[in-house]
TrEMBL record:
<keyword id="KW-0862">Zinc</keyword>
<protein>
    <submittedName>
        <fullName>Putative Zn ribbon-containing protein</fullName>
    </submittedName>
</protein>
<dbReference type="InterPro" id="IPR007808">
    <property type="entry name" value="Elf1"/>
</dbReference>
<dbReference type="Pfam" id="PF05129">
    <property type="entry name" value="Zn_ribbon_Elf1"/>
</dbReference>
<feature type="region of interest" description="Disordered">
    <location>
        <begin position="87"/>
        <end position="109"/>
    </location>
</feature>
<dbReference type="InterPro" id="IPR038567">
    <property type="entry name" value="T_Elf1_sf"/>
</dbReference>
<feature type="compositionally biased region" description="Acidic residues">
    <location>
        <begin position="94"/>
        <end position="109"/>
    </location>
</feature>
Length: 109
């Protein structure tokens, strides 16, 4: 006589989260990160900042608040395929100079 089989207990699956790193449209390495910053006084939009650790691509885009990192990455890739990536591109020194100008402007008031 054989024994009765036991039911196997199923382990819950862990949810998969999207990766923080994306493939850079310029150099092809998987070092592109996308971060978000708040825009003062505007609750409907946020600033998306994309940086590549390999080729130092730096891109800023104003996007609606509902978009996630993957959506912003798709916008950047679309700009790259249309050869319009230079429209959102800024060097990091230019952005530092802009923030210094903003601080100087606030000091004059």
């Amino acid at each position: 006589m054989a024994r009765r089989r036991r039911k196997k207990s199923l382990k819950p699956k862990k949810p998969r989260h999207p990766s923080r790193y994306f493939q850079c449209p310029r150099c092809g390495s998987v070092t592109l990160t996308i971060d978000f910053a708040k825009i003062g006084g505007n609750e409907d939009e946020k600033m998306a900042i994309a940086k590549c650790g390999n080729c130092h691509l730096y891109c800023e885009l104003k996007v609606p608040r509902v978009l996630d990192r993957v959506d912003v990455y798709n916008k950047i890739v679309d700009l790259s395929y249309d050869n319009k990536l230079s429209e959102c591109e800024k060097t990091e020194s230019e952005t530092e100079a802009e923030t210094e100008e903003e601080v100087d402007d606030e000091g004059e008031i």
